[in-house]
Specification:
It contains 13 helices and 10 strands. About 40% of the residues lie in helices and about 20% in strands.
């Protein structure tokens, strides 16, 4: 009996020492996403549930107003190490932004993983045959700083299409303006089917999706197709382009570097759970997709065991020296 009590006391002491090092308590991390009705936010909630199962990371998910806000947040907001942005956000900052601080931040923004495709929807009055026909038109391009806003601006620059007016308003307001005839077209960058366009547009509105086939755009953006009847009022398939949603971090050092690496390791190991239990778009995620213009974070490569890093990940929790010592005592019984 005394021997058992001595072992129990030693176990308790070891657990107290282990807890005292901070290894037992979950690491607190933050992920900034998008609007609460959007796919970014839902992806965040899926990752939050996954991390809760691991007991190693306590993930808080924050909504946001767009990709630019997320780039700033990952850099400077306390407790936010991760964000979801569109893959063309770096090109937007490099080409169209004059803010030196933002440009400096962008240079140290790193990809954790590529996620899913977001198709570019350009909805307009019937009779606008293609993207080039938007020259001289009134076009809503999304709220300032949003992913839709930055993609629209880049597509106009790449194609040299010059609308008479680019109106920075949200998609709900833009659709109302389009229906009222006060604008000619609107942008919405999101993975199909888009709920707003599926439920908010009917055949009676006399609107249609506008194809994007410009060679200058397709040299930069991957081609995509929206199948016919994705929307009841759009019977024909549509050629357009897509951007990737990207999970990003900053080029942190020390503790945040390791936390992001562990997060990525857990996410990669449990992709099957995300596909089975998360948003339908998880089925389209390829973590190994080679995304041009993005450098994967070295701390992520380290924990995934990818080439380019000499370090190896720490042992799994069940191989922690404290756990080994406890297990060894009972093995001797």
């Amino acid at each position: 009996m005394k021997r058992i009590m001595a072992h129990c006391s030693l176990i308790l002491l070891l657990l107290l020492v282990w807890t005292g090092t901070g290894l037992a308590a979950p690491e607190k991390m933050g992920l900034v996403t998008g609007g609460e009705k959007g796919t970014y936010y839902q992806f965040g909630l899926d990752l939050q549930k996954l991390m809760k199962q691991s007991e190693f990371i306590n993930l808080t998910v924050f909504p946001s107003k767009g990709s630019i806000e997320n780039v700033y947040a990952v850099y400077q907001r306390p407790g936010v190490q991760l964000g979801v942005v569109q893959s063309d956000v770096l090109a937007f900052i490099t080409r169209l932004q004059s803010d030196p601080t933002l440009i400096k931040i962008a240079k140290k923004t790193r990809m954790v993983f590529p996620l899913y495709n977001e198709e570019v929807h350009v909805l307009g009055r019937r009779g606008i045959a293609d993207f080039e026909d938007l020259t001289g038109k009134r076009v809503a391009i999304g709220r300032d700083g949003s992913g839709t806003f930055l993609t629209a601006r880049l597509l106009f620059q790449l194609s040299d299409v010059k609308p008479s007016t680019m109106i920075p308003i949200d998609t709900d307001e833009a659709l109302a303006e389009l229906k009222a005839g006060r604008i000619d077209a609107m942008f919405y960058v999101a993975g199909y089917p888009v709920k707003l366009l599926r439920e908010g547009v009917t055949e009676a509105d006399q609107l249609a999706l506008i194809p994007i086939t410009s060679k200058s755009i397709m040299e930069i953006y991957p081609p995509a197709e929206i199948p016919g009847n994705t929307y009841p009022w759009q019977p024909q398939k549509l050629t357009t382009v897509a951007v990737k949603a990207v999970l990003v971090s900053f080029d942190y050092r020390f503790r945040d570097c390791d936390n992001v690496g562990r997060f990525a390791q857990l996410m990669a190991r449990r992709m099957d759970w995300l596909v089975q239990n998360g948003h339908p778009k998880w089925k389209q995620v390829d973590l190994n997709y080679q995304l041009r213009g993005w450098e994967q974070y070295a701390c992520v490569k380290k924990y995934l065991g990818l080439p380019g890093t000499a370090s190896t990940p720490p042992p799994p929790a069940d191989e922690n020296p404290v756990f080994r010592a406890i297990r060894g005592m009972f093995d001797q019984q």
